[in-house]
Amino acid sequence: MSKDYEPNIVAFLCNWCSYAGADLAGTSRVQYPPNINIIRVMCTGRVNPLFLVNAFQQGADSVLVSGCHPGDCHYMEGNFYARRRFTLMKELLEFIGVDPRRVNMSWVSASEGGKFKDVVEKLVKDAKDTGPFEQFRRNKINW
Amino acid sequence: MNSKPKIGVYICHCGINVAKTVDVDEVTEFSSQLPYVKLARNYSYMCSDPGQNLIKDDIANEGLNRVVVASCSPRMHEPTFRKTLIEAGINPFFLEMANIREHCSWVHQDKEEATEKAKKLVAASVSKARLLEPLEEKEVEVEPASLVIGGGIAGIQAALDIANAGFKVYMVEKTPSIGGKMAQLDKTFPTLDCSACILTPKMVDVDAHPNIELLTYSQVEEISGYVGNFDVKVRKKARYVDMEKCTGCGLCAEECRLADRIPSEFDAGVGKRSGIYLPFPQAVPAKFTIDPERCLFLTRGKCGKSPKCVDVCTAEAIDFEQKDEFVEFKVGAVIVATGYDVFDASRKPEYGYDNYDNVLTGLEMERLVSASGPTGGSIALGEGEEAYVPKDIAFIKCVGSRDESVGNEYCSRVCCMYTAKLAHLVKEKIPEANVRIYYMDVRAFGKGFEEFYDRVRREGIRYIRGNPSEIFKRNGRLVVKVEDTLTATPLEDEVDLVVLAVGLEPRKDSREIIDLLRLSQSGDRFYLEAHPKLAPVDTATDGVFVAGCAQGPKDIPDSVAQAKGAASSALGLLASGRVKVEAQVSVVDEATCRGCAYCVEICPYGAIEMVNVNRMGHEVQVAQVNEVLCKGCGACVAGCFSGSIQQRSFKDRQILPQIAVLGVLR
What we know:
The complex is a heterodimer of chains A (143) and B (666).
Chain A (H helix, E strand, L loop, with lengths): L8 E6 L3 H10 L8 E6 L7 H9 L4 E6 L10 H18 L7 E5 L5 H18 L13
Helix pairs in contact in A: 1-4
Chain B lengths: L6 E6 L11 H9 L4 E7 L5 H14 L3 E6 L2 H14 L7 E5 L1 H5 L5 H19 L9 E3 L3 E5 L3 H12 L3 E5 L14 E2 L4 E2 H14 L3 E4 L2 E9 L2 E8 L14 H5 L6 E2 L8 E2 L2 E2 L11 E2 L5 H5 L7 H5 L12 E7 L1 E4 L3 E3 L16 E3 H8 L22 E8 L15 H15 L4 E6 L9 H10 L3 E4 L4 E5 L2 E8 L4 E7 L1 E6 L1 E3 L3 H8 L26 E3 L9 H21 L1 E3 L5 E3 L9 H5 L5 E8 L2 E8 L9 H5 L5 E3 L4 H12 L3
Helix pairs in contact in B: 1-5, 2-3, 5-18, 6-7, 6-15, 11-12, 12-13
């Protein structure tokens, strides 16, 4: 793969913890690679596992679901649902040959701006190692 | 309402915060080409009045019906721009924000890369904005009562302020008496007010206030509901003493077989109490409590022939049959004022707190110098004939604060001044004492603090800059090993008494409140406020406010100020009597719902129920969302087998276009 390959990452962040943690990373002027594109949801429980497949179809090389630490969910149990659904989807994707490093989940609280940067950096590094992900690509859907 | 979308895109420079790394003109030009975008503009500060007027004018003159603001985080200014839309006469939920500051310009340096990313983020927001729908914010009534958790000075102040405004307050305190840590203090810095003298009148006011229901020796078991309508269940632990009958005479404690044998919590273990006890003389309520973990009768079922407390109590108040009781009530707002724990000095083993009797913590010293303390305020060490008055006294600051090795990076904010105060009190009681204070820095930042620090130094107390490495015993005396870092001289200082200025830590049981109220913690493990500057008493949970040291280390004036702030925020809610509930809730498409009720199982709030509807002549069961109970998490949406539940503003067909835009390679 070419050296200047820049992976494209789609991330689903919950409003209360990880999105706020990413905000804090900004407020603290932490620097991380621009490859990550964030979609805000109120809770990771809202993330339909099919969103991950859809992201791959639409051109993502790697995906991230990030929410509150287990037990800290603003909605009490949303991140537990997310974790269960995510695990099933990740195993299914792995089973059909998707590199597990492309399918990621993390817990980042509202006070963990530094951790968010670490997560993004690891994600980008892994995505660069795994290279572009073409197998699922479909034509861009014009919604 | 759902006419053809005409989107206006507004790119904010945020001074240079965005404009420095994002080429706003390029993003504006790019945005204007996006589908359904009627116009795109950029402006220095969109949140300012002229910025908002720009949006309003365009809505009026250009007929915009959707607005995308690309600026800071929606967590910051979404409410601002929603209001702008309302003022311009369109539904506030026709707004979408693109976070090109926190998630872009502040975290990236390369202008080209940041500009490209900003374009993608704006395009994603535009793709969603087109599909936004108008929502209606429902209002519910607010229960005109509040719950205050914690009966320290912060809780007391908050409760009094709310009660004085005419609203009911339930105060729940875990220990047998209110008063908290402040009641344990002797004098308060820098004014040297007697702590008890200024606190106890407030404690009595709480007890006597017609609007305050005081629940001491109680714990909140459950809180459910939402802002304005919390259902609270409190466990009143059995005191084994009838509160109605107890006169507080204290005969029982004198006669108790365990009299003066149990370390007193109030005296920080320096003094002793009985198995049945009043935590301190001015306790409120002035009713005795039996310690179920110590009482001989309760632990062994036998206390001599008969328990002495029962024998001497003429009021017949002792009741070993008492059981925990549960109280349930409804409140509109909750104030968390649960306070702090002092740092456990055993975690710094080099200071020998566990090994040497004459190494004390600040709080223990406080009880020792206090006139209401176990020694009546005389600073004497050792027992009986071996008692002596310490002459050489060393204080060590920052024990458990500003110390990464114990996981506390923060400054506890009170230790500098309480050390100065204790040093002053020691000097007052033992004028010939030689007092020195080992410090890293002296932080005398508050009103009157620097003046007090100056005064203490003029009294002959020496400040030596250095963080002691070890305390050990030599010839029966304590030796403080330290380097005076200002003269680079290693010292071995022989002293009679060492006082460790221990810092403040989050309570060990702070998890209980997190689980009850879904609060978050900041990096220092104290409760996280909604915004560090602009919403310092609010939390991420609407209707829940935080006050005092539960939010972070504070001195008494700051705790009181924050308590008043929390009370005023709670009062704003209670006094308005109505509150808006989440509009971005789930909604069921009855036409496709297959009635499996899986969503009912998922919903953490019990907001979904099954109802019978007539579908083309057939009676079928479908799910229905109670829009007041629904909090809008969307867990049901991702769980629905038929895609029949959707979350308003976060529908599949509003999120998928964003994915399609963001998935495109750069």
